[in-house]
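pinging the channel bc i need a second pair of eyes. not urgent but kinda urgent?? the chain im working w is below, pasted from the shared doc
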Amino acid sequence: MRGLVLALAAGALPGLAAPWLDARILQPGDLAGAALVLPLVLVLARLVPSTPPRPTGLALGLALVCTAVLGGAAHLRLPTTVTNDEAAILFQADTFASGRLAAPLGHRPYADPVAHCPTHRRQVYEDAERGLRFSKYAPGPALFLAPLRAAGLPAAFGPVLAGLLSVLLLHRLARRYGLAAPDRAALLLATSPFFLLVTSSFQSEAFTLPAALAGFLLLLRLRRSGGRAAAVGLGAVAGWIFLCRPLTGVVFALACLPALLRRGEDGRPAPGPAAVAAAVLGGLPFLAASLCYDHALTGEWLLSPYQLYARDFGPFFPAGHPRAGQPLDVYGNGDPLTGLLRQAGRWSVALFGILGAVALGFWGLWRLRRRDGGAGLALAVLLPFAYAFHWYSGHWAYLGPLYAFESLGLLLIGALVLLEQAPPAWRRALPLAAVVAGPVLFLVRFRLAEDQARERWRPQAAAAAAPADAVVLIPRPPLAVDPGKLFLPDLPPFPADRPVILRELSTPGRTRAALAELGLGDRPVLRFLPGTLPEEDLLQPYEP
């Protein structure tokens, strides 16, 4: 028991240090909420019967229901996406659903970065020469969502389906790792506030977690019984992750590689170089698809839309910096020590929603290193380390270290393996406290995401009072909020049953000319004026 307490204390240190070292790491209430669950553990340790219930499958069913209901309900509550990243992924999914790799601009884009375009969206690249518009992100998540969009189904089915798949795969993976109660692992994932928050989004990590879990199932099968098909499947999983999140795909492959060359815990021979070659073969089609996609959109095989956007749009290092004018939003431009602090501080509150519990996960994966060749621990360590060199740590709305989300299921398994040998009170109370507190913490934390989405929806909410044939202009800075970052304009083809929302350009002449080019020159034009509060927002006639 002393070891568990010391582990929790060590895991809590980054979270406790975070507010003093970087106020942006955690949001108000994160630390207090995760700390308040610890007394609940002590209470439950005394109240819960000494004999734990036998697995009946009920926990797995409850996990699936929890994922579908909470994730689906969260999507329905949001009037728009929480981040521009998600909006760009949905835009690209619609583009794929229409049978195109890129959407036509439909108008002349203004090259002047001050003027922008009336339809300009962040994270979406506009190619002025070819008249094309496309998301800067890797195509995997949009490919996952495109069939749903083509069928006219809600896009929310995509991440909820990925979440359900993650729960089922974690249940099976927990059995493969030898857990006595694999249902418990599935239920803990489904009630994890970190998992529920990401499942309620369109972030790319929602579509790579099930792939990572499937990959570890194949890896364990390979280490136990070999098989070329399993090796090819493992390579395909790494390829899919690469198609969704390239750096994560590389890290996943590197984490699995040593496990293919190490002997099993029972002395079985390692899968060996032949398995490595088969895995490479399985990943090649995805690599080829990624290269072809990049070439089709950027004209270069080794220039991705992400790099193109960073090069041409920024953000850039500020004046006075040794690298002033160079793009900031590329890998390798981060401060690794600060990056690791951000990752560790968020992990400190994310696993189980219990302060410091992530240390149990790392400890448990260390104990499992002979079973999986150390791949689980390697992935859990390498993901935060790799992304520590990125300038941005992931959007704050999702509680945990978003860029390390793919290791969540493995850390849960590691913690449960450890708890199976803990004193009975801990073995019962800590998972039960997590199941009870997790959804509560999710609902509390979800309010922050919902507030952000409603803030982004303010022009659309105000435009509901305008005539259906009106054009509503999003004003230019300076304002209390940055309209270029928060507010989303409409894209052609424009809706016919409600006002069209566009950006105001740098001069009245440019604005009027852009409206004429878009075929909107004869419509009444209003200007959206955001107030301090949403109820203070105004619409005024546009009078240059």
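so Residues 424-456 form the longest helix (33 residues). and The mean pLDDT is 91. — does that match what u expected or am i reading it wrong
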